[in-house]
Design a protein that fits this description.
The complex is a heterodimer.
Chain A lengths: L4 E3 L2 E4 L5 E6 L6 E8 L3 E9 L2 E5 L6 E5 L5 E5 L8 E8 L7 E2 L3 E5 L1
Parallel strand pairs in A: 2-11
Antiparallel strand pairs in A: 1-3, 3-8, 4-5, 4-9, 5-6, 7-8, 9-10, 9-11
Chain B lengths: L2 E3 L4 E5 L4 E3 L2 E3 L5 E8 L6 E7 L7 E2 L2 E6 L4 E6 L8 E9 L8 E2 L3 E6 L1
Parallel strand pairs in B: 2-12
Antiparallel strand pairs in B: 1-4, 3-9, 5-6, 5-10, 7-8, 8-9, 10-11, 10-12
Classes of the chains: A mainly beta, B mainly beta.
């Protein structure tokens, strides 16, 4: 158990819908990262937050957004969903002074 | 831009034997970190081992060790005394630049199957 929690574990929805994925980092970790794992694109970095502020953006679509709240949990919002958004979405957190990221169990999103 | 390449889509090994997974990378930074993550069928991403680029000594974690060749930009993972529980997808990953940001760049992954 990495100490990072993600909910829900599975999500099945229809095209055009909007969903919210939630992540709680390890206790004391200020940095949260979101990654997408799909069959065709592999594992890709989406976005990073540090203590409530956006720090870096990767290959994140405009239909996707994220935020980190004062209690340090983070949410990834996916809207106008398309079939190609079906993937495993990981959250990871990192201790402030270290480089290692610890991953949550992921949320499996299926768009029908 | 940084890239990570794993040229072996699949590997197999007999239980108790040794196997080596290959990884090459590219970055223009001098300060970087390399990792191997394991993803078993449960899909959880589990850290196996990490290497700091400024350290010449190869990292070791129990049965797992790396061969870090900085000049060649190579970072291979050796698994000794392979166990059935080692069956998983293995990802090589890189963080370069300042660790304040530290996004991971992953390779394509290598599926390792350990046979009894």
């Amino acid at each position: 158990d990495s100490g990072v929690t993600q909910t829900p574990k599975h999500l099945i929805t229809a095209t055009g819908q909007r969903v919210t994925l939630r992540c709680s980092p390890r206790s004391g970790d200020l940095s949260v990262y979101w990654y997408q794992q799909s069959l065709d694109q592999g594992l890709q970095f989406l976005i990073q937050y540090y203590n409530g502020e956006e720090r870096a953006k990767g290959n994140i679509l405009e239909r996707f957004s994220a935020q980190q709240f004062p209690d340090l949990h983070s949410e990834l919002n996916l809207s106008s969903l398309e079939l190609g958004d079906s993937a495993l979405y990981f959250c990871a957190s990192r201790p402030g002074a270290q480089d290692t990221q610890y991953f949550g169990p992921g949320t499996r999103l299926t768009v029908l | 831009a940084q890239t990570v390449t794993q040229s072996q889509p699949e590997m197999s090994v007999q239980e108790a034997e040794t196997v080596t997974l290959s990884c090459t990378y590219d970055t223009s930074e001098n300060n970087y970190y390399l990792f191997w993550y394991k993803q078993p069928p449960s899909r959880q991403m589990i850290l196996v081992i990490r290497q700091e680029a400024y350290k010449q000594q190869n990292a070791t974690e129990n049965r797992f060790s790396v061969n870090f060749q900085k000049a060649a930009k190579s970072f291979s993972l050796k698994i000794s005394d392979s166990q059935l529980g080692d069956t998983a997808m293995y990802f090589c990953a890189l963080i370069s630049g300042g660790t304040s940001y530290g996004k991971l760049t992953f390779g394509q992954g290598t599926i390792l199957t350990v046979h009894p």
